[in-house]
Design a protein that fits this description.
This protein is of the alpha+beta class and 459 residues long. The chain has 13 helices and 22 strands. It has three domains: 245 residues, D-amino Acid Aminotransferase, Chain A, domain 1; 66 residues, ATP-grasp fold, A domain (Dna Ligase, domain 1), CATH 3.30.1490; 73 residues, D-amino Acid Aminotransferase, Chain A, domain 1 (2-Layer Sandwich), CATH 3.30.470. Strands 11, 12, 13, 14, 15, 16, 18, 20 and 21 form a nine-stranded antiparallel beta sheet that branches. It has a five-stranded parallel beta sheet with strand order 4-3-2-5-6, with helices on both faces. A four-stranded antiparallel beta sheet has the order 7-10-8-9, with helices on one face. Bound molecules: adenosine-5'-triphosphate and magnesium ion.
Length: 459
């Protein structure tokens, strides 16, 4: 156990690791629960049509001139965000490491760079002079974001939040050791030998993940001691960046898991945090397969999750940090266990494109721009199911079966427009409503199964 663990010591440690010594981080005092906490009362179970009251005081109006937004990462979540931004007349520059990424297809301009190179990130910010830089992925040289923020550009929700969440171990140490949130027991290991020791301390089965990765990449469950070598290799092959460190987590046999979308508005404009009702989801290979709303969850457990989400989002983003967060929890009996969070829209939150009037992308945009978010209207039982590529397809893929998918009332399809496919790559999502959550999930799964990712695009 660390002698004295503070948010600053964690940030220092990770600044060191990212080889960004010398970057002066603003000293941040821990705020814990000093800020007022006013969770909204959200009906947790089956309300078919619901309106969620969101505290919306008379917010100071944001600038009327539509800004330039630079999106770092241009996947499917970014694409939906850009569509919302374009509807409100913003100018958007979409950035990714490969051309024709989904969000680039709907943006005003695009840049193809390696976002892990600080100089490249700084150069495109200088070129386009955006008012907001919105990270859409974790793999960004956060040193550059800190410098950009210091130069007066608003980084969403803050450079510090992007920095901490990029490293699984940084955010976990902060959550468990500084904020004292309940988490799975965990240990870190930087070699196969250390991993064996860590697994012994945590016990089997356990989950082994690279500290830098997402969407389940490099993640495996070790069930017997003989799995350790395989898990180490798998983690090293699936990791991003150059940090050969893994986190070993106690395997939580949860009853269900949720994403709590938490919207944070700037304190200076009178905005408060509020929560979208929990989203239930199912994962395979550490990757999201389907999600649904509403997710049946006792109100007192929702409150627990909300308190934790408020605590950690306030801590990492500070009073002026604005935007949506996907805060992930496991629920086991009466325990609500913090897992991790994204300081941006969440893949499981794609269900909000059908479940409510303002999707997670619209909420993110409004929070970023400081626009009012008066109230959320829920549309009843809703679900999303992913459309995955079955195999490698080099050129631009085509999609068969969309017309079959769309035969069912309440079904919508989103094709992301990725320029190539590989096994299990997420290529689209089916969205559906239904009479019940089970019905909505069935409709979404059926629609997703209709759509096949195939070779060769028709004229
Ligand atoms: N300690 C654990 N016990 C049980 N299941 C776990 C544990 N950790 C992760 N999982 C399962 O694996 C999924 C993915 O894990 P996690 O969210 O940590 O990975 P990720 O790569 O960050 O995924 P994403 O980027 O899609 O959120 C979880 O949603 C959960 O279903
Ligand atoms: Mg996750």
């Amino acid at each position: 156990m660390d002698k004295e663990v503070t948010a600053e010591s964690i940030i220092e440690a990770f600044a060191y690791r990212a080889n960004i010594r010398g970057m002066a981080h603003e000293p941040t005092r821990l705020r814990f629960m000093q800020t007022r906490f006013e969770p909204i009362e959200a009906s947790s179970t089956g309300a078919s049509r619901d309106e969620i009251a969101i505290p919306c005081p008379a917010m100071k109006t944001a600038s009327l001139r539509q800004p330039t937004i630079m999106l770092l990462g241009s996947g499917e979540l970014g694409k939906e965000f850009v569509i919302c931004a374009k509807r409100l007349g913003c100018r958007v520059v979409a950035v990714d490491r490969y051309p024709d990424a989904p969000a680039m297809q709907v943006a005003d301009a695009c840049e193809v760079i390696d976002m892990l190179e600080a100089a490249s990130v700084r150069a495109i910010v200088k070129k386009h002079n955006p008012r907001y830089v919105v990270p859409e992925i974790e793999a960004i040289r956060t040193e550059a974001l800190t410098a950009i923020e210091k130069s007066g550009v608003t980084v969403i929700p803050s450079a510090r939040a992007a920095h901490l969440t990029m490293h699984r171990d940084a955010i976990r140490s902060l959550a468990a050791r500084v904020l004292k949130l309940p988490t799975a027991r965990f240990a870190y290991a930087s070699s196969e030998g250390e991993l064996a020791g860590a697994v012994q301390r945590i016990g089997l089965p356990c989950v082994i993940k690279p500290v830098m990765s997402s969407s389940g990449k490099g993640q495996s469950v070790a069930r017997i001691a003989g799995d350790i070598t395989k898990s180490w290799k798998y983690a090293i092959d699936g990791m991003r960046g150059d940090t050969k460190t893994v986190i070993v987590e106690e395997f939580i046999n949860f009853d269900y898991e949720i994403t709590l979308l938490t919207v944070k508005q700037r304190a200076s404009s009178g905005g408060k945090s509020f929560f979208v009702p929990p989203i239930g989801h199912r994962q395979e290979r550490g990757d999201y397969q389907e999600s649904w709303m509403p997710c049946a969850m006792p109100p007192q457990l929702i409150k627990k999750a909300q308190r934790m989400a408020k605590k950690i989002t306030d801590e990492i983003a500070g009073p002026e940090g604005a935007g949506i967060f996907g805060v992930e929890f496991f629920v086991r009996g009466k325990e609500v266990i913090f897992s991790e969070l994204s300081p941006r829209p969440h893949d499981t939150g794609m269900v909000t494109m059908i479940s409510q009037d303002m999707s997670e992308f619209e909420l993110h945009l409004r929070a970023v721009l400081g626009l009012p978010i008066p109230k959320l209207t829920l549309r009843g039982p809703s679900a999303s199911a992913v459309i995955l590529a079955p195999r490698e397809i080099r050129g631009e893929p085509a999609y068969a079966g969309i017309s079959d998918a769309l035969r069912t009332q309440g079904v919508e399809i989103r094709i992301f427009g990725k320029p190539s496919a590989r096994p299990y790559r997420r290529m689209g999502v089916a969205l559906a409503t239904g009479k019940t959550v089970a019905d909505a999930r069935r409709n979404a799964a059926r629609a997703a199964a209709c759509v096949r990712v195939v070779e060769g695009r028709d004229r």
